[in-house]
Amino acid sequence: MKNIVLINASPKINEQSVSKEFLEMAGSQIDSDLFSKTFIDVRKSFLTHNLTEDFQTLAKADVMIISFPLYYFCMPGMLTRFLVDYHNYYTASENIKNHVKVYAIVNCGFPEPEINLEAVRVIKSFSQHLNAEFRFGVLIGGGPMMVATKKAPFMKKSVQKLKSAFSSIAADIQHENSTTIDSICIGVDFPFSRRLYYFMGGKGWITLARKNGLKKKDLYKKPYRLNE
């Protein structure tokens, strides 16, 4: 039985994250009778000092599916450190599988899924350093909105595309296919203007700041900027 390792790299820990929800959706498409599925939470791995055990799990993987949110047009720093540490573990170990398939699920708040492409290229480069085979990525635009409104009628088409993309991962895992596959881009079909979308997104940051005892002006502070 092949081992599938599903990696959630959202920095959130005490609440359901968009990346985790997408990862669980992808995992549900994989036949449990044919494959063994193990979930790894990167943040918990660091907090519980469980890296060695999780790296041992990755070393036995036939497939890795990495799900994460876009941070500054690339991966969260936490995931970068996790992958670098695993690469060091990999180079120091001898008993690691060589033929491993890797997939990426990347979501961002921007409506354009193509913005995630550079982050997918980083995962592809990581795969090459492990002598693994990067297959393709699922690039998702408007990820948080897609999860929050997934039952809304206007979201039906986007959700169907999402399920189809995850089915493509499941099908590709089952077949020894070496044909190059392009990454899948999925955006949101807005029933309103993009200007309103960005406006509501901005309001969301203000609401989140207030929940954490901050004011709107605090969002514009630059505490780490060097004095000129």
Structure overview:
The chain is of the alpha/beta class and 228 residues long. The protein has two domains: 190 residues, Rossmann fold, CATH 3.40.50.360; 37 residues, no CATH class. Helices cover 43% and strands 18% of the residues. It contains eight helices and six strands, in the order E-H-E-H-H-E-H-E-H-E-H-H-E-H. It has a six-stranded parallel beta sheet, with helices on both faces. The longest helix has 19 residues. The radius of gyration is 19 Å and the shape is globular. The mean pLDDT is 89.
Distinct helical segment count: 8
Number of domains: 2
Structural class: alpha/beta
CATH class call of the largest domain: Alpha Beta
CATH architecture of the largest domain: 3-Layer(aba) Sandwich
**Overall residue-averaged pLDDT value:** 89
How many strands, what sense, and barrel or not for the largest sheet? Answer: 6 strands, parallel
Distance between the termini: 60 Å
User: Helicity level, as a percent range?
Assistant: 40-55%
Give me the CATH superfamily of the largest domain: Flavodoxin domain
Cα shape: globular
> What would you report as the Rg, rounded to the nearest angstrom?
19 Å
Summarize the helix and strand pattern as letters: EHEHHEHEHEHHEH
Give a quick summary of the entry.
43% of the residues lie in helices and 18% in strands. By secondary structure, the protein is an alpha/beta fold.
